[in-house]
Amino acid sequence: MKSNHIYNSVERLAELLKVGARKAVAEHGLQPVQLEVLHYLSLCNRFSDTPMAVTEYLGLTKGTVSQTIKVLEKKELVVKELDIIDKRITHLRLSIAGNKLVKETIPTALFVNACNSLSEQTQEDIAAALQQLLLALLNANGLKTFGVCKSCRYNSQTDKGSYFCELVNQPLADEDIELICREHENNS
Length: 188
Description:
This protein has helices at 3-26, 32-43, 51-58, 62-74, 96-105, 109-116, 120-140, and strands spanning 78-82, 90-94, 155-157, 163-165, 170-172. The protein is mainly alpha-helical. The chain has a domain at 3-117: Winged helix-like DNA-binding domain superfamily/Winged helix DNA-binding domain (Arc Repressor Mutant, subunit A), CATH 1.10.10.10. Helix 2 packs across helix 4 (62-74) and helix 3 crosses helix 4. The longest helix has 24 residues, at 3-26. It is globular. The two termini are 28 Å apart. The model has no long low-confidence stretch (mean pLDDT 92).
């Protein structure tokens, strides 16, 4: 069984990615977990930009997420907004500075340098294998996929070519279908 070998490689990669993240955000006075929150918010849709979704996606405690968001708000990297319909729901969005920081630091230079040393085919093979591993881990443990809308069973295309989420009964913009959602379910 290769699970130990795979685990050791993935764990080492994760540690190296954290080293790269620490270096990337050190000059901004941030910790890697704060960059992880910013990164998630840059990828998620409007149905998944809440503190609870951040907690679920990153597997952190509510307290850690709450404190992290406070720091990011204070540094003017994240903005909180109340939901227009349900005032109990708080949405989080990146500020212009937060968006700029993510674009400058993700992926980290450490990671880009490594990928650039690999052929296009090798990069494609690794991406496919990692996607398979991620889906296997999520499915085997009953975890949420947080996939992009375009691959979700609730996403449908209307006669006019626009998109619609059948779960929340809301139209989706073209850019929405490229973002991750906490309600994602694979097309089966």
